[in-house]
Amino acid sequence: MPRGIVEGMQNSRLKIEPGSKLIFIGDSITDAGRAQPVGEGLFGAHGTGFVNIVAGLLGAIHPEHRIRVVNQGCSGNTVLDLKNRWERDVFEQKPDWLCIMIGINDVWRQFDLPLATESHVNLAVYEQTLEDLVTQTKPNLKGLVMMTPYYIEPQKTDEMRFKMDGYGQAVKRIAERHGAIFVDTQAAFDQVMNTWYPATLAWDRVHPNQIGTTVIAKAFLDAVGFTWDPA
User: Fold this and answer.
1) Strand ranges across the sheet with 68-71
2) Superfamily covering domain 18-223
């Protein structure tokens, strides 16, 4: 390998090691129309969401790291759905790095389907299930990134925003217990909402447009030490 590339890798602040396989798992925000059953390859396989932006920037700005990005998000998932497919979509994929962002549907179903209680995931079940998944998986990883769920609503007293913040705090507690990289996506949106109205970022305050998608991608990249100048 040319000396300049080697020196660039040594000086890089990027926390994800060269040659790593990085898997993203979550709900529709991660999925964003990715290829099934494995979101990897050509022709939009990463989907149109934040994973696609992350993969593009890592490959373009840090090509020498040769980071392999795989999208295993599934629309509509709760943490219980993740548990049911964890063996296939995480363990069998053998990631070096794993990024988890889940919880929006765990909260949202309590508001858009209030009578369908079988679809609800209360905070205690959410936190314990996520804790169990992390406990089982962390020893096999080089790195773990945990991203909060979010609701693109500036009023923290809004009932759904208030509940979502509680689930985000659960993610923070788990990340701290396991030494994972913590990404507060809600805080990232809060900052942007100082300028933009929520509908400018997501028509339903959940599924982001290009601006909102980039907010999430930037929050992830900042957390893992991405820099525009790899040298």
Assistant:
1) 68-71, 21-26, 97-101, 143-147, 181-183
2) SGNH hydrolase (3.40.50.1110)
